[in-house]
Design a protein that fits this description.
heterodimer; A: 194 residues; alpha/beta; Pyruvate-ferredoxin Oxidoreductase, domain 3; 6-stranded mixed β-sheet; 7 helices; globular; B: 385 residues; Rossmann fold; 2 domains; 5-stranded mixed β-sheet; 13 helices; 15 strands; 21% strand
């Protein structure tokens, strides 16, 4: 696929912008493709709704905003409620299962029509806590995404992680990536689509 | 102190502000004085980090008046210098910007535009300072203003801005916007040897023979640096070839006419445009900065619907590319001008169209970019009048 539109939504402090940045960096610097990220956030440093929008393509990217996201990673209830309806039919919806209550009505609706969004849930924050710190939940999510869709190469993603953190934090972030990646691989083979 | 290369050759994923700072360093900028302001702060942050690595100087000043003053002074000391700001700071710089044109001081001023007037929308986009860039300081002058559309162009055009400022001896403006400043994209920095660098003409004759405002054939006088032993007299007053103040209407005529002419006569060298699909177009979108990228999407949608629509991106906004717009006005049905202000560059387009082609503005006062469908609606309108 030559063009991917990815939205990552959550609140300030979850590393939402950093996750978008790492995805774009893996694509641009290590996979040598075009990548653009725009971000939206409130004036507060923590706690307010924020999202990052990443486009990855083989062609130059003119319009830098998403038109129809192929992927939404929702790390907050608000992010899920606001952006889940935008996801492209056949697209990927990944939610942080401990922070998002799925909308039962929407699930039924999506299940009944032809425009099915592939839904995956992941306790990314819990996985991160088990690894040592909840701060790497965003990287767990990136690992999960990487296994589910060929947006960026796993090796590119690992390089992006390696080159973006201080030495002392690289190992934990790489572990988080691998943990998410492994969960994604298992989910994909189980094909637990809703 | 940690030393680092001035040119970070390679592929990067960085935002427009950081790319601008890297472009400045690659162009040879070794002095930055500024006062932080959203959405331009990252330029100052990057310069504060990087200038000491390359033997340069970073000064945080008390305000933007001091910032531009320090930049003009640094340039006269022989160093390539830059400052970066947004609307409120740009307003404060206006008086000394005029001093820069009058004293023919090479330097670069970056305005990462946000919504105005006044403090307006600190974190959100605007393009409301485009006419201020042209007319903001008092008196007659011509300026050069470039409008980058991407992080890559924040790098590339900062180098172009330094080169033009050195070549024509004047402050050059980079009229960016909050989206282009903060957009994070792939930026390719070429090897140092592939980056063309222009340095100001230097006077190398005997000390007594130097006339700081005696122009050569290109209307640009060679420069010396303060402290090299030449006698320099720098004043904002109307001055003769020696730099001495004069109240003579003849001296005024000669000086101000030359300040304007050195830009107008070289417009062909200064003006940069990008065009798509203009050859067969009945309607041409004219845009700059982030709006040009939004307009591009509108063009794609219109072309997919069978409309012959072209796209003209102003990379150089000042001097305005009158000649090209007049050529097109003679054969297109309409120009459509989307911009994030309530009508600035559209006036220039309308002036060039001179009634021969329709000019349709699509305007928003900043805060958010256009929805491409707004521009598409204007395209449909153009085909139905």
């Amino acid at each position: 696929m030559s063009r991917w539109e990815v939205k990552i939504a959550g609140f300030g402090g979850q590393g939402i912008i950093l996750a978008g940045y790492l995805l774009g960096k893996a694509a641009a610097v290590y996979d040598r493709r075009h990548a653009t990220m725009v971000q939206s956030y409130g004036p507060e440093a923590r706690g307010s709704a924020c999202n990052s929008q990443v486009i990855i393509a083989d062609e130059p990217i003119y319009y830098p905003y998403l038109t129809e996201p192929d992927v939404l990673i929702a790390m907050s209830q608000e992010g899920y409620a606001r952006f889940a309806p935008e996801v492209k039919p056949g697209g990927l919806l990944i939610v942080e299962q401990d922070l998002v209550t799925l909308d039962a009505a929407r699930l039924r609706e999506e299940g009944s029509g032809g425009d099915i969004v592939r839904l995956y849930t992941l306790p990314a924050t819990k996985i991160a806590e088990e690894l040592g710190h909840r701060i790497v939940a965003n990287i767990v999510m990136l690992g999960f995404l990487c296994a589910l869709a060929p947006i960026v190469s796993p090796s590119g993603m690992r390089e992006a992680v390696r080159s973006s953190f201080p030495k002392s934090a690289i190992e934990l972030n790489l572990m988080a990536f691998e943990a998410g990646y492994e969960r994604g691989r298992l989910s994909r083979s189980a094909d637990d689509r809703v | 102190m940690k030393r680092g290369p001035a040119v970070l050759t390679g592929v990067h994923f960085i935002n427009g502000d950081v790319a601008c700072a890297e472009g400045a360093l690659a162009a040879g900028c070794r002095f930055f004085a500024g006062y932080p302001i959203t959405p331009a702060t990252e330029i100052a942050e990057r310069m504060a980090e990087r200038l000491p690595e390359v033997g340069g100087t970073f000064l945080q000043m008390e305000d933007e008046i001091a910032s531009i003053s320090a930049v003009l002074g640094a340039s006269w000391a022989g160093v390539k210098a830059m400052t970066a700001t947004s609307g409120p700071g740009f307003s404060l710089m206006m008086e000394n910007l005029g001093f820069g044109y009058m004293t023919e001081t090479p330097c670069v001023i970056v305005n990462v535009q946000r919504g105005g007037p006044s403090t307006g929308l600190p974190t959100l986009v605007g393009q409301g300072d485009m006419m201020q860039a042209r007319w903001g300081s008092h008196g007659d002058y011509e300026t050069i203003a470039l409008a980058p559309s991407s992080a890559q162009e924040m790098f590339d055009l900062t180098i172009v801005a330094f080169n033009l400022s050195e070549k024509y001896r004047l402050p050059v403006l980079i009229m960016s916007d909050a989206v282009v400043g903060h957009i994070t994209e792939r930026v390719i920095i070429p090897p140092e040897a592939e980056i063309p660098i222009v340095n100001r003409k230097r006077f190398a004759g005997p000390r007594g023979a130097y006339l700081p405002y005696l122009p050569e054939d290109d209307l640009v006088p060679p420069m010396v640096a303060a402290g090299e032993g030449y006698r320099v007299y720098i004043t904002g007053l109307t001055h003769d070839e020696r730099g001495y103040p004069s109240t003579s209407p003849d001296v005024q005529e000669r000086l101000v006419r030359r300040l304007v002419e050195k830009v107008r006569r070289n417009a062909h060298d200064i003006i940069r445009l990008e065009e798509r699909g203009v050859e067969d177009a009945e309607v041409v979108l004219v845009a700059y900065g982030i709006s040009a990228r939004v307009a591009y999407r509108a063009m794609e949608l219109a072309r997919a619907a069978g409309r012959r629509v072209g796209w003209l991106r102003l990379i150089t906004v000042w001097p305005f590319p009158e000649e090209r717009l007049r050529e097109l006005a003679a054969r297109v049905r309409a120009f459509i001008v989307p911009e994030l202000n309530l009508g600035q560059i559209v006036r220039e387009v309308e002036r060039c169209a001179a009634g021969r082609a329709l000019t349709i503005p699509v305007l928003r006062p900043g805060g958010a970019v256009h929805d491409p469908r707004e521009i598409l609606a204007a395209i449909e309108e153009a085909f139905h009048v």
